Amino acid sequence: MIFLLIDSFFFSAGFITLGFMDQAPLGRLLANIECNATAAVNITHHFVGLMVSKKLKGCIVFTSSVAGFIPTPFAAMYASTKAFISQMAACLHIEVQNLGIDVCAVHPSPVSSNFYDKVEHKIELMEAAQKSAVPPQDLPNAIFKSIGACALHDLGGMAWGTRMGTFFLPYNFFTKAFAFAAPYLQDYKTHNANRK
């Protein structure tokens, strides 16, 4: 009998549902949670259990997002699941690091990929952020450098800028500020027309 022992896991699956939460089909919102969060719990639970029982050293790396640490209107499920992934990674890092298992969540800045190709709503702020996207081949080396170095790693200018911009102010400040500014944004005006 041959056993294949895997000691490194990289979670990058994810998709985004854009638009007002009440306008999105509930099934799509739940699928967003399943893909971005629940599947990671199921797979992580299985393989961490195997790694611990077999006394394997290794790593688990999750791709999270800068969206997980700021309010992200029009992408509530995406932002929520990414906050979940980062928190889970940080907690798991504490639980298993002394067993020789490194856990890290990386928060890349926008990446040039097919991620945004099939979104239902076009959001101007997101399209503007995509203009600063980095090519996917720029990420692997930075991700590998994260292993064993930290539990959470911000990669790229947008991630660093957002982290520094939110460091000194409470989360509630940004929530209130975004709520005040939202009615003046073109994205809000365009998509809110159906709600009146």
Structure description:
- The protein has 196 residues and is of the alpha/beta class.
- The chain has one domain (8-195): Rossmann fold (3-Layer(aba) Sandwich).
- The protein has seven helices and four strands, in the order E-H-E-H-E-H-H-E-H-H-H.
- It has helices at residues 26-53, 76-96, 124-130, 139-146, 157-167, 171-181, 186-192; strands at residues 8-11, 58-63, 101-108, 152-155.
- A four-stranded parallel β-sheet has the order 1-2-3-4.
- Strand 2 (58-63), helix 2 and strand 3 form a beta-alpha-beta unit.
- Helix 1 runs parallel beside helix 2.
- The longest helix is centred in the N-terminal third of the chain and has 28 residues, at 26-53.
- The N and C termini lie far apart (65 Å).
- The mean pLDDT is 82.
In short:
47% of the residues lie in helices and 11% in strands. The protein is α/β, with parallel strands linked by helices and 196 residues long.
Strand content: 5-15%
Q: Architecture in CATH?
A: 3-Layer(aba) Sandwich
The average pLDDT is 82
Structural domain tally:
1
Rg calculated over all Cα atoms = 18 Å
Summarize the biggest pleated sheet: 4 strands, parallel
CATH superfamily: NAD(P)-binding Rossmann-like Domain
Q: Strands of the largest sheet, in order across it? A: 1-2-3-4
Structural class: alpha/beta
The strand count comes to 4
Helices, by number, come to 7
Element order: H for helix, E for strand: EHEHEHHEHHH
Strand and helix layout:
Elements: E1 8-11, H1 26-53, E2 58-63, H2 76-96, E3 101-108, H3 124-130, H4 139-146, E4 152-155, H5 157-167, H6 171-181, H7 186-192
Parallel strand pairs: 1-2, 2-3, 3-4
Helix pairs in contact: 1-2
